[in-house]
């Protein structure tokens, strides 16, 4: 760092800018909770708040010639703004800070997003469940998920990656959405190739590589809702094409006119699967729940229910609490 | 969540004050920094939202740092740079520096050192940390237009009032009002002031109900006349000559540790007239003394003549009249807004002022949304959800 002897001391000469903030001292990392494709989540202690346990997501942001990318700033601004609503089905964002060490060398910034710590995710919750969940529990969790999704959609945020891993379950059994809103930040970054991304909750439009919108989250939620009943994934494909086969075996191969344009795969490359009856796959499930899930797993995104439609479905409205 | 509103006593006991800078001097630094952001922003054709966001960052920044540690013009550049990105009107750092150089004296620009860009870029991270990544800021402009649409009366007079209020909002950026009150409150107060000065008496408004004593009761509940007047005075004080001549031109840059407090206060020198951002010291409005009969009267000078005296204070961008009423060009960027609802919650401070949840989600289908602010335990949630069985 250059510091001229004639001019007043420059900022660069303030040796350790981080010492001004002591971010590192604010949180004490305890252990790794999980490593996703784009970042690691740590369990940490908030030293400024009586040692409260928090979940800290560490995301590396590549710096550009003009500093922190606009898209990242926009996304953080929006996450901060959403937080103002304190939606019950969205994980609380408590703080955002950056680590800042060795920035000049790496041309990257380590961002810390500090969230409330939630006991477990839906994946482990379902794994640990001793038996089938009660009907009320399933309905309440389904409603929580859809409320969270509808909230994001009403703010024009598409989650893109809803799955049991990203759905957190509080000690009182409430579900909260996590890990959203940083899609563009993630996109600019190198993905860790070793991490396998699950395809089970991906809708056909994403697998086919055509444009997508909020309807992707409704599809993913539909898969999760089915899983609440069976505690097993509904569509467990092992690669893109196999995932599509799984989907078409369930909902039937779409008609030619429904097949999107500009797709390299032709519809005829799939056998003409007839649609199955969801009741055969989800036995003993309430007919209204089946009807809802069926409306969520529709091939054409435009014909799929919206999150708000789902919330107004008789499966919920006929069974209002009290 | 970070909290950005301060009491008057907090605003006196700032990091700069604790660092030996007098309040009057700090206020001048704030004013100069804000004005510099406005001038730089308008020279670069940045919109009023971006400029205002930059200024709010600037004021917030100095609630955590001293003007002695961080020179105001560098901070100002950085705030505008960051606001440009956040408001999606990005400007290259080097271009901002170029404009800054053209606006500042050589001596003042000297503070940027040998590598001005690196200086500003380094500060970006400090700025972000300081403002806690709380990047989305709301301003009074949108509220001004929204409120004006509800008022009934002579169109031309209303238009004139809004225009004047708009100007006051611009100028309010040079005060610490954004550190004291929500944009809704500032909008109401400055429209109230403009109404007084332009002799536009609002007697009726859309949505009036019997319990409303004045039009602003519809927008901000329980706002007192004392508060309205206090806010107006803070803006009017900008035009008073007394507030403009304190503080050294730039705070000493040595670390404060070497300088025992109270021993060497910043010297008080009149602003140099060579400064390209020299303030116009000619009072346009008669300052109203606090405690005196607080009736705000129109200035003796005809407003139409006194306003043209402002331009040195008002950058070109602000000479453009505010959007027309009642069909305003909303202060929303063209194209689908990325953030449809920009509504941070008001903080639960000052019990007397309670901003009701506005229904300004125009253009979007009416949908129930959570109330502003922390969801109180009492009231029902926006939509029913199932409690855990
Ligand atoms: N607030 C939180 N409290 C407790 N655990 C959390 C919290 N947020 C995330 N986790 C857990 O941390 C782990 C990793 O989460 P993360 O979101 O980084 O990864 P992911 O979802 O696996 O990856 P990807 O980024 O690819 O979606 C998951 O098991 C998730 O359940």
From TrEMBL, chain A:
Cellular component terms (Gene Ontology): cyclin-dependent protein kinase holoenzyme complex; cytoplasm; nucleus
One MF term in the entry's GO annotations: ATP binding
Gene3D superfamilies assigned: Phosphorylase Kinase, domain 1, Transferase(Phosphotransferase) domain 1
Residue numbers binding ATP: 57
Leading EC class: transferase
Domain of life: Eukaryota
GTP-binding among keywords: no
Catalytic activity: L-threonyl-[protein] + ATP = O-phospho-L-threonyl-[protein] + ADP + H(+); L-seryl-[protein] + ATP = O-phospho-L-seryl-[protein] + ADP + H(+)
Keywords attached to this entry: ATP-binding, Kinase, Nucleotide-binding, Serine/threonine-protein kinase, Transferase
Domain Protein kinase intervals: 27-316
GO biological process: G1/S transition of mitotic cell cycle; regulation of G2/M transition of mitotic cell cycle; regulation of gene expression; signal transduction
Record bears the keyword Kinase: yes
One Pfam family in the UniProt entry: Pkinase
Its EC number(s): 2.7.11.22
PROSITE patterns hit by this protein: PROTEIN_KINASE_ATP, PROTEIN_KINASE_DOM, PROTEIN_KINASE_ST
Family: Belongs to the protein kinase superfamily. CMGC Ser/Thr protein kinase family. CDC2/CDKX subfamily.
This protein's name: cyclin-dependent kinase
Organism: Leptidea sinapis
TrEMBL record, chain B:
Keyword list, A-Z: Cell cycle, Cell division, Cyclin, Mitosis, Nucleus, Transcription, Transcription regulation
SUPFAM superfamilies associated with the record: Cyclin-like
Segments of this protein annotated with the region Disordered: 242-276, 363-389
Gene3D superfamilies documented for this protein: Cyclin-like
A GO molecular-function descriptor: cyclin-dependent protein serine/threonine kinase regulator activity
Domain Cyclin-like: 35-129, 142-237
Biased composition (Pro residues): 367-389
Biological-process GO terms, alphabetical: cell division; regulation of transcription by RNA polymerase II
Compartments (UniProt record): Nucleus
Signal peptide (from-to): none
SMART domains for the chain: CYCLIN
GO cellular component: nucleus
Pfam families on file: Cyclin_N, CycT2-like_C
Function as written in the Swiss-Prot or TrEMBL entry: Regulatory subunit of cyclin-dependent kinases that mediates activation of target kinases. Plays a role in transcriptional regulation via its role in regulating the phosphorylation of the C-terminal domain (CTD) of the large subunit of RNA polymerase II (POLR2A).
Family: Belongs to the cyclin family.
Protein name per Swiss-Prot or TrEMBL: Cyclin-K
